[in-house]
Records
---
Amino acid sequence: MYDSVASFMDDIVNKNPGEKEFHQAVFEVVDSLWEFLQDHPHYMYAKILERIVEPERVIMFRVPWRNDRGEIEINKGYRVEFNSALGPYKGGLRFHPSVNLSILKFLGFEQVFKNSLTTLPMGGGKGGSNFDPKGKSDNEVMSFCQSFMTELQRHIGPKTDVPAGDIGVGGREIGFLFGQYKRIRNEFSGVLTGKGLNWGGSLIRPEATGYGAVYFTQEMLKTKNESLEGKTVLISGSGNVAQYATEKVIDLGGKPVTLSDSSGAIYDPDGIDRGKLAFVMELKNVKRGRIKEYAKKYGVEYFDGERPWNIPCDVALPCATQNEINEDEAKTLVKNGCKCVVEGANMPSDPKAINVFLENKILFGPGKAANAGGVAVSGLEMSQNSMRISWSREEVDEKLHVIMRNIHESCVVHGKEGKFINYLKGANIAGFIKVADAMLDQGVV
Ligand code: NDP
């Protein structure tokens, strides 16, 4: 048995060499669980911590495909099936050149706790490839997706493992992946979520992560008798999560003033309104262009190669990628008056940035709680597929809203420290208990 977080982490680092994102994700969880585990030693005796950090299965494979010039390209494919104590493995696929085993293990590990928080019957997993869809034709993306699924299909299924989208995997990619699965397996089933509306998808799934993160923000602000009305909001990213977070902030009377992509950030002091957001959606989802175009179109500032965190705001919603807020940026946010940081992305704040938020006792909503709306509606998509029905937009949105309120409540119950709510601790403890208890019930597996 380990006598400290440091000794546990030494072992993690030795057993998983070079996987720095995975080490970071494990540290964040174990550090905030440690006190709770000392008070509940039965989890330690059953070695739940040692078991929960080890994926049940890791699948790695070759993805050969042909580009438009007729040349053969080879990418790496992965699926990390992390934990199935609560249900079939569930979690997205990421297509991005930075993808490696460490990143997918960090995401799969986070997913286990996130899915537990939703209270829906879903285990945790994550997968993807170092394939870069940027600059590829639709035909190339299809060729790649077909090759990727040719291997992945033998490992997944509606009762086993149900992938969804993530960075670089949106409606277009899910369509190509689903088509190939159906062709090889000769079955039309709910094996992927985020599907098109007329072939098994759920209403509100595209909106769910962004909307859910903003519903979570609303609940956090309520604890201070505040709302989003009139608040200046920084948003990073300009993909799926960022777009729908922007939409919901506008709906609730807030003023989003920034967006970004991996090339830079725009700052629109007048606020991004519905018309401007429609432009961004067309730019990113159809033309697949760069956010710089926004600055040209609306005559606002563009910061090449920068992130938006040095602009004064009330609320910050990082919605792009991991480690996009460092310690200095966190200090700048707090100094400039930011009172609430809510993670639409997975692990966007690095550990030192999180310390800055916690030490300054501002509202900090960790990704595994705040962005759980996406997987929650994926869970609802699975239910609708199994029952062969579809719920209306209002029904799904209401269920999403209730789930986000309940996740917030669980964080409050387990994260209260006097008058301060430590949402990180709350989310980790609440997520852990359900998975750990299910693992105890199911024996040494
Ligand atoms: P998209 O691919 O739709 O958008 C990603 C956005 O982030 C793009 O604007 C992209 O810019 C930017 N980005 C990606 N990598 C980097 C980087 N290294 N540096 C700076 N910017 C970057 O993905 P999503 O919106 O779906 O995902 C965003 C985040 O939300 C991820 O962390 C994801 O894991 C998380 N998430 C997503 C869920 C979902 O349902 N989609 C569910 C829960 C969490 P560019 O166009 O230049 O690549």
Note: The first helix runs from residue 5 to 15.
---
Amino acid sequence: MTVLVTGGSGYIGSHTCLELLNAGYDVVVIDNLCNSSPKSLQRVEELAGGKHIPFYQADVRDRAALTKIFEEHTIDFVIHFAGLKAVGESVAKPLAYYDNNLNATMTLCDVMGSHGCKRIVFSSSATVYSGDNKMPLSETSKTGNCTNPYGWTKYMGEQILRDIAKADPEWSVCNLRYFNPVGAHESGLIGEDPKDIPNNLMPYISQTAIGRRDHLSVFGNDYDTPDGTGVRDYIHVVDLARGHVAALSYLQDHKGECIFNLGTGVGYSVLDMVHAFETANGVDVPYEIAPRRPGDLPTVYSSPEKSRQVLGWEATYSLEDMCRDTWHWQSLNPNGYQD
Ligand code: NAD
Ligand code: UD1
């Protein structure tokens, strides 16, 4: 079985390619490298004992490039990671986000359909859930009211796939809603390599610990949470990657649309993360309390029950593992793939 992985050289994509190879799938990647390095896939090949990943440096919106891939390979499944993901940038450049994220999805599905490939896993996000839900979030919790264009591209991306599956019962569509992916492969060879100043907490913590940043700003300590700082559901990226392997098995014999949360079901605060990182790695993470970040919710965590029961998947890595593996990657590659 061959899986086409769009955005496969990125953070989650590279870890997923490795888990797919380990599970016996063949993998083909398309990525335009707008936010990743080709080194990640070279390292995945190394970790997979020298298995080869055919790589196409192209944009998923490029119909001719996609068609060439489908002509050169028999693709059984697609996992669609390719997308822009910086929330602040999406507010400043909404058209770039709608163009990249939605046109890529539509071109991809069109080319897939015309080659008879109708099984797709889509990278959605907890950001599609409306802010007024009770915790934990289950797949039936209310969606919408997104606070930024990035979030809307995920909401609309899910809807496009849902409508395709409704129109043609041959399609199998799996919308996976990720909570907060962190960590790295235990080898320290692949990991998250933000090109600019990180927006997300974990890369900011590790870049602070290694001295690339002066201190972490903790965005608000007056939320209604146990220590006043924001609470999130952090999940090890290798667990997340394995969730995709479980989703492919499910799609083999299920048609229509399905939705699964990929999270641990446990929430940790910003200060929990700082202290866990310091303890796991014996390093200091200097921090200062700063104003709240606009658009942030106090507490977000998943119910992973449906994924456990239906996919037979659950997260296995602890918070300590997430902190240790992030630091291992960061300390072996202080400047990411540039080293
Ligand atoms: P990433 O930026 O590391 O990976 C995305 C990859 O897609 C990059 O390699 C980039 O070069 C490529 N890409 C972007 N647009 C493309 C296009 N038009 N054509 C070809 N390649 C393109 O990000 P990631 O963290 O690995 O995220 C993967 C997916 O998961 C994204 O869709 C993201 O929105 C989603 N997601 C991520 C998180 C997170 O916290 N990391 C949370 C929820 C959802
Ligand atoms: C953010 C995005 C969300 C996106 C997700 C994954 C916003 C409002 N939400 O989610 O749409 O799907 O990333 O890309 O941007 N924090 C600090 N200091 C920092 C960074 C973060 O205190 O320098 C805090 C935040 O306030 C939050 C927690 O850490 O409480 C986690 O933040 P982050 O990693 O950005 O993830 P989310 O806010 O959950």
Note: The first strand starts at residue 2 and ends at 6.
---
Amino acid sequence: MIVKTDYLVIGTGIAGLSFALKAAKTGEVAILAKHEAYDTNTNLAQGGIAAVMGDDDLVEYHVKDTLDSGQGLSHLDIVKAVVEAGPTMIEQLNDLGVPFTTRNGREDLPELGQEGGHSRRRIIHAKDMTGQAVQKTLGERAKENQAISFFEYHQALDLILAEGDLTDSRPRAVGAWVLDVKSSTLKAFMAKTIVLATGGSGKVYLYTTNPDGATGDGLAMGWRCGVKVANLEFVQFHPTCLYHPQVKNFLISEAVRGEGGRLIDNEGRFIMSGHPQGDLACRDVVALTIDANMKKSGAEHVYLDITHRDPSFIKDRFPKIYQTCFRLGIDITKTPIPVVPAAHYQCGGLMVDINGQTNINNLYAIGEVACTGLHGANRLASNSLLEALVMADRAAKDSSDKLSAIASPPITNLEPWTIGRLGTAPAEAVLISQSWDEIRRFMWNYVGLVRSDQRLMMAFKRLELVKSEIDDFFRNFEVDADLVEVRNIAAAADLIICSAALRKESRGLHYSLSWPNRDDLNFARDTILINHSPDIRPTPH
Ligand code: SIN
């Protein structure tokens, strides 16, 4: 079956939905979710959206904080573009009806939260459920828009490319092969513009704050068809994921530290007191300090203590965290919260220009899947939802301007998706699911917060074996949605390991025992990987 549209958007988080709403003014949009449309990383985001809206704040301050956090690798042009657009993005979300928390009963005055690495209070939020509020509002607006068609339980498998033409010989993206998960059928979605907004790859790691769907699908699809990738060694570990045997991926927002929460060890000593910014130091510093503390004491977690604040303030400011912990037997108004670092955000990704365009014509990448150059070696807290909004806006403008000049995608001569046979995976598939578990374990142990050349080599060797098992399986058996994710996870892990092995220094989120110092002479640059033999051939023109 073939579905034709103007814009194909893969992913229904903040980036995909914002793009869809803007692109729908100039054409038909099909938007794909591999699960339910709200099942995204955006929906879990607690903290908020950084934007310069305080009386004591300036664009220059936010630019400086972002550059400081990026440790020499953030690109000034994109940092300025994103930061400058912040207040407009918030205004647009207000107009769409996102219920941000306000102050002094004034609808026009957002309450400003504080997070690590920010020199001013500038986090616009909806209590501790900012992502959920944004997801719900954008999702509702998109669902009522006649030009936008939702396809839930539709999992993109690979992109479809066509040959370039006389004016531009580069291949161009014309669609995607998609698995209709409920009917196990293959569909081709053909479009003039394709947008990858698939989020990150947190599920590469054993412990993560991400939802199950964060399996690096867009990253893997883009890489396979020849999109350049950058800076994938910079995986951000959030310092404070709840430590609990039943609930593995619940975040305790950095905003808790912004409101006075302090990290303590199991003897009640303040962990961050040796750092000038204390508990609000940048995430790379806080996560590494916690990790070192746990290794030294042998403890399985540390604690985040907010019990000194008034209980009614805590319940009002952090209702989700309070209620979730309470249900698990932890009253955060009375007891410190057990926390550990966990994989949270992929700072690198598919390389894009300032409008979100990749090196493949008509193919854009926005949100966490992309590397714009904003985050550098360490993302500043709450800059990611902002980046997603700004890049969706820029990509929508850029692609809308070009739309009328783009030829309709070919719908004949399509080479079918031959990477695997879709169907019911046989019992042997259990072994491949175990591969996923294995990848997540060795990525955590060898490619986590503390790396070394030797650890990276061990991870690389183990991954090679797992990858060949996955390839064999795809050749010999029918595959399903889960196995498609395992293949993508393996591709994402491979790119993270290779990028980490190339950076022979320590900087930001990449810390290597083999190269413990920062080396500006040789490494004040992005790590770029190029796939010289993409495994998807363009279809005939
Ligand atoms: C948080 O609430 O701590 C997460 C915010 C972010 O990752 O930017």
Note: The CA atoms of residues 159 and 273 lie 49 Å apart.
